[in-house]
Amino acid sequence: MVSKLKVGVHVSISGTLDKAVDRAKEKSCTTFQIFTRNPRGWTFKDLLDEEVNEFKRKVKEYGYDEPIAHMPYLPNLASPKDDIYKKTVDTLIAELERCGRLNIPYLVTHLGSHLGAGLEVGFKRIINACNKALNNVDNNVMILLENTAGTKNSMGTYFEDIKYILDHIEQRERVGVCFDTCHGFAAGYDLRDGKAVKQTLEEFDKVIGFEDLKVVHINDSKGDLGSNIDRHEHIGLGCIGEKGFKALLHDERICKLPLILETPIDNRRDDYGNLKKVRELAE
Fold this sequence. Notes:
Elements: E1 7-9, H1 17-26, E2 33-34, H2 49-61, E3 68-70, H3 82-102, E4 106-110, H4 119-136, E5 142-146, H5 159-167, E6 175-180, H6 181-186, H7 194-207, E7 213-217, E8 220-221, E9 232-233, H8 241-249, H9 252-255, E10 259-261, H10 271-282
Parallel strand pairs: 1-10, 2-3, 3-4, 4-5, 5-6, 6-7, 7-10
Antiparallel strand pairs: 8-9
Helix pairs in contact: 1-2, 3-4, 7-8
């Protein structure tokens, strides 16, 4: 099982995009996630043919079949502010196009915050943004909706909320889900042992369906169950713990998916240590 495990980290694109593939390889990742551009600003440079070709060449050479991209930090799909919302939709369109050129099949996005305008406004904005972006970009890239920890005014905390959005996307086959374990746990979905994992996954399957789950962000949680605190922790050192991740990694529906670590790097552990821990728990 461990040899077939698709597990990796979010790698830096510093320098040129293809360097990210080298970094993933250096860390013994069997999958990886990137931003296709600087995630902290609205402006970005167009992709050059040379860097696109080099990225795709290395992805193929190193045997990565499902690299993953993540939306930048600033966009807010649920924003009631028209200026921010327009820039967000434009960014979503641009990222779908960039992923298409790079042969990246999945674009993970946070669902944003309604900023106090209410869930109904948030849902409408998210659904409209996804529909507009997908109708503007003709490729095979899937938008993956990521669940949130339930911080104030955030969208997509509960499985029912994500299902509602999925059901209102016109090109339904072009949207899926990225489940973040830290966010799910902080939102109240227990993952601390085999029984809890089984119950949470059963609920996911009943409400959304496993056919829509494409990627798992595998992170432990600094915050306790239902705390709504979005703070990632090293695998096994947080409130989910080793027992929970062992159960998760032994579920055949989970262990076959791309698993991305977004864990801290500090004096206790680095990316290598967390990758090693995941592989150890999956044995």
